[in-house]
Amino acid sequence: MSRVPVFWKWALTAVIVALAVAVAFWPRGGSENAGPSTEPTRAIDPELRAASGAAPCPAAPAPEQPGPLTDLALSCLADASPAYPGRLTDRPLVLNLWAYWCQPCRTELPLFQEYADRAGGEVQVVTVHSDPDEAKALALLAALNDELRAQGRTELHLPGLQDPDARVRAAAQAPTALPITVLVRPDGSIADYVARPFRDADDIAASVAGALGVTV
């Protein structure tokens, strides 16, 4: 009986191992675990943008002294127009960083709307979706508005930014966990960040007063 040369035995073994590794690491479709999305940005239905309630993003001239957020180029959730978080206002600015998969963020967003309504023109409140999947962010905002409307509560109508690479969080040197709230002075410099969920609008007001000196 002829024998297979040792060389070919090792070659066949190497091929089998390579195939096993390739199968092990082949991308699977879907996941049961909630977490940050890695899906590419998809075209957004304008009706979804409208249903989200996101307000147009304000704009102000670039500050004389550039801050860490001045040159960050993001997009506005309301209409996908370019938006610069460091040039949104010449007032104190509150940036609430969230993501569609973050349950504490979902609970917290209406509190920021309540605080913004209370603050009026004293403070600009802007949400920042810190995940690549913009469509899921808009869908969550729309679902939240449905819930709030059914409860007789004020719907969400805050300006929002799409930040797929979490550049605002990186600029603030904040931790990776969400939610995070970044408190920005009128000159564009970052006064502080809060890396925890807020209990209520009074809790937000106390943090803003302590960092930015605005009492409402």
UniProtKB/TrEMBL annotation:
It comes from the Bacteria. Keywords: Cytochrome c-type biogenesis, Disulfide bond, Membrane, Redox-active center, Signal-anchor, Transmembrane, Transmembrane helix. SUPFAM superfamilies: Thioredoxin-like (SSF52833). Its main location: other. Pfam families: AhpC-TSA. Residues 51-213 form the Thioredoxin domain. The chain crosses the membrane at residues 6-26. It is found in: Cell envelope. This is TlpA family protein disulfide reductase. It comes from Nocardia testacea.
